[in-house]
Amino acid sequence: MSILSERRTYVDGTWITGDAVIAVENPADESHVADLTATPLAEVERAVLAARRSFDAGTWADRSAGYRATVVHAMIDHIEAQRETLIDTLVAEAGQPSRFADETQCRAGVAVARQTIDLYLSMAHEESNPVPVDDLVRGRVALSIRRHEGVGVVTAITPYNAALIMALQKLVPALMAGNSVILRPSPLTPLSSLIFGRAAEAAGLPPGVLNVVAEEGAEGATLLTTHPAVDMVSFTGSTAVGRSIIAQAAPTVKRLSLELGGKSAQIYLPDALARVGLGALGVVARTAGQACVAATRMLVPQQSKEEVLQAVSAAYASVKVGAPTDPTAMMGPVISAAQRARCEQFVTLAEQNGAKVRFGGGRPEGLDRGHYFEPTVLDLPDNSNPAAREEIFGPVIGVIGYRDLDDAVALANDSVYGLSSQVYSGDTAAALRVARRLRAGAVNVNTTVFSAYAPSGGYKQSGLGRERGPDGIREFQEVKHISIGELAK
């Protein structure tokens, strides 16, 4: 494997080294991947001030949308040219199967990034605003304009499970809107994000417009969410950390865009039970359940629950768990020993509260090194079980029976989360009626769409704001109203 060679971070157009290092571990075999320099806290501060200076000076924000598009496309060109090395880097630092790193992170990430540029260019960022006739006459108003412009300095904090694509989803709309950005990747997977500093340098992005900082702890992240020179925080991660960010950002009333946790439900109407095996595989294949949108609650007719448990267990028995570099392996490890321990803890809690393990529940045989956990099927007695309430973020699915469709909707909505849901039925109209009643930011009926044009985000404690789609671009913009009239004589 040939991973990215850069080991420094990027501040104000220069590469930074420091005394402290971040040791990156390969979760597949617990080997040491690389050391990279941790950005000193003083340099994180300098990154904020450089971003502030570059935005206020208009070196990027005042350039035309067409110019910004050309530069951002050049950045994406650089990233795309490093695809093979990026794949190896993502596999090494995150333990992701090569196909996920290639198809989802690199190929889909680049496609969404380029689509985002096209979407931005297709949108109106300054448009006439309707004015009642009486106001036109009385106020001598000649024109009312609604203008969308960059919010300013943006902190972008990305998670370990999809470091590259999540960064692209934040950086491209933020940069296209004219903002200056500080990217802070997860300490568990920082290597792949250094490509953005190289891409900015290669494309000629002005100094200070994009900065990439890395750290082992959270001191720098706290500075980036509290600093008065930062206007907005875009974060993807757990609800617990999201709550902390809300509190940290409150004194300076920052704009927040938060994609947080989920406990998504997949609902099967009685005519769609033949699909439960495929739906269960979607939870664990490639991601090992480490996806905020993973539909880890499977809701099925109570009378068919035993049949479903057998089908889902058979599907998981077919999953080959193994090294991410093994092309025949469908699932790799979870990110860390702590995350594997969390999976074990929730399986135990589930059993203590009346659940039964129908498949899995421990370390796969023959994999003594690496943070592997078996794909696991839980027979949950009801929706109050801890495994039905909390986001485990691992390859664990719970099957819950419902009495009728009203009960299925109530069970799906009985959660502090509301990120994503799925509904399956050959009767599309019936499935759509269920979908419209679900309290979730995205509901997939028999299929899914992932593109720059389709927004994602959560209800309730699954987050604030949206990513992707026109709404995702507007997250990185302020709205200014300009009224123009003739000077009274």
Give the helices and strands, then pairings.
Elements lengths: L8 E3 L2 E3 L4 E6 L4 E7 L3 H17 L7 H17 L1 H12 L3 H25 L3 E3 L4 H6 L2 E10 L2 E5 L5 H14 L3 E5 L10 H9 L6 E3 L6 H8 L5 E5 L2 H11 L5 E5 L5 E4 L7 H9 L12 E5 L3 H13 L19 H16 L3 E4 L16 E4 L6 H4 L6 E7 L2 H9 L3 E2 L1 E5 L3 H9 L5 E4 L13 E2 L2 E2 L4 H6 L2 E9 L4
Parallel strand pairs: 7-8, 7-10, 8-9, 10-11, 12-13, 12-18, 13-16, 15-16, 18-19
Antiparallel strand pairs: 1-2, 3-4, 5-6, 6-22, 11-21, 14-15, 17-20
Helix pairs in contact: 1-8, 2-4, 2-7, 3-4, 4-6, 10-11
What does this structure look like?
The chain is built from 16 helices and 22 strands. By secondary structure, the protein is an alpha/beta fold. The protein has two domains: 9-260 and 463-481, Aldehyde Dehydrogenase, Chain A, domain 1, CATH 3.40.605.10; 265-452, Aldehyde Dehydrogenase, Chain A, domain 2 (3-Layer(aba) Sandwich), CATH 3.40.309.10. Strands 14-15-16-13-12-18-19 form a seven-stranded mixed beta sheet, with helices on both faces. The chain has a six-stranded mixed beta sheet with strand order 9-8-7-10-11-21, with helices on both faces. It has a three-stranded antiparallel beta sheet with strand order 5-6-22. Helix 1 packs parallel to helix 8 and helix 10 (276-284) packs across helix 11. It is globular and about 80 Å long. The mean pLDDT is 96.
